[in-house]
Amino acid sequence: MALVTISGYPSSGKTRRAEQIRNHLETRLQDSAYIGPKLKVAVLSDDSLNIDRGAYNDGRAEKLARGALFTALQRQMGADTILIVDSLNYIKGFRYQMYCAARESRLRVCTVYVLATPELCREWNTVREDGRAYLPETLDSLLLRFEEPSSMVRWDSPLITVPWTDEDVPADDIWKAVTEGNVKPPNAGTQAVPKAPTDALRALESTTAAMVSAFMAEQSIPMGSGGSITLPLSGTLRPRITIPPRNVTLAELQRLKRQFVTVHKKAITLGTIEKGAVDWSEESIADKFAVYIEGNLKP
């Protein structure tokens, strides 16, 4: 349904704002006047994933923490969920990554920027009593590296800023963003690449090898020069190939087979960029190989 990304300095009050947003959304969803689809509100945070603040002391540990957060985000996103991500989200590249995941799932997006001065964040971090304070040097490093959200870029838009002076979040704006905002369709940059089935390599090798054998067997039958021949691979698999008016050698066919298999092995391993062309059945492979032979055999 929607992804709400919370961003802000460490110890700026993001968790409090996330709870305010959740309370407002749940209240409106439970209101008798609400007639939309049945939705649930979930909050994903470092605390819910048991990610210690110490992870931000080291770049490698922080990268692992972001990976765990992103994996959990992908798992919890859904058409029936308004997901609030309560984390630092201070790197614009990571916010863009989350935006792409939301777009792939056809979710609305909204970014809430929790604004507070660095001085206040340092003060609030010092007085924390929940055991979740940052080390002073870590806090200073995160403040310096913070990449502020911008309403001018699509992955931060719509952007709703909540300053520390406000007692509550702008619930109306957030509600409108998650229930009425535009749902951008996935494109080539955000769609998952379709993968081939697990037996595609076996089918590729066995089908092309059978076609080479059948081709040589058919060619040995006196039939004049050139023309179209049918390769009887099975009762239902009988591809047709037009051959040149000369004898085609086994070495030629083996060379074409190796080239064909090499090209398509790469497509099987990495996925395919051909839209709607992820058919690795024996029939499809036989038809493609027949066309490949016809196009690459010299007259």
Estimated structural class: alpha/beta
Share in helix: 40-55%
The Rg value, from CA coordinates, equals 29 Å
Strand order of the largest sheet: 2-3-1-4-5
In what range is the share of β-strand residues? 5-15%
Low-confidence stretches: 272-277
Number of helices: 9
CATH uppermost class of the largest domain: Alpha Beta
CATH H level of the largest domain: which superfamily? P-loop containing nucleotide triphosphate hydrolases
Give the CA-based shape: elongated
The biggest beta sheet reads: 5 strands, parallel
Overall pLDDT, averaged? 88
At the fold tier of CATH, the topology name of the largest domain is Rossmann fold
N-to-C span = 59 Å
Describe this structure in words.
Keywords: ATP-binding, Nucleotide-binding. It holds the Pfam family KTI12. This protein has nine helices and seven strands. It is an alpha/beta fold and 299 residues long. The radius of gyration is 29 Å and the shape is elongated. Helices cover 44% and strands 13% of the residues. It has a five-stranded parallel β-sheet, with helices on both faces. The chain starts with a strand and ends with a helix. Strand 2 (40-45), helix 2 and strand 3 (81-86) form a beta-alpha-beta unit. It has helices at 14-30, 59-76, 92-104, 118-126, 136-145, 171-180, 200-219, 250-270, 282-296; strands at 2-8, 40-45, 81-86, 108-115, 159-163, 227-230, 240-243. Helix 2 (59-76) packs parallel to helix 3 (92-104), helix 7 packs across helix 9 and helix 8 packs across helix 9.
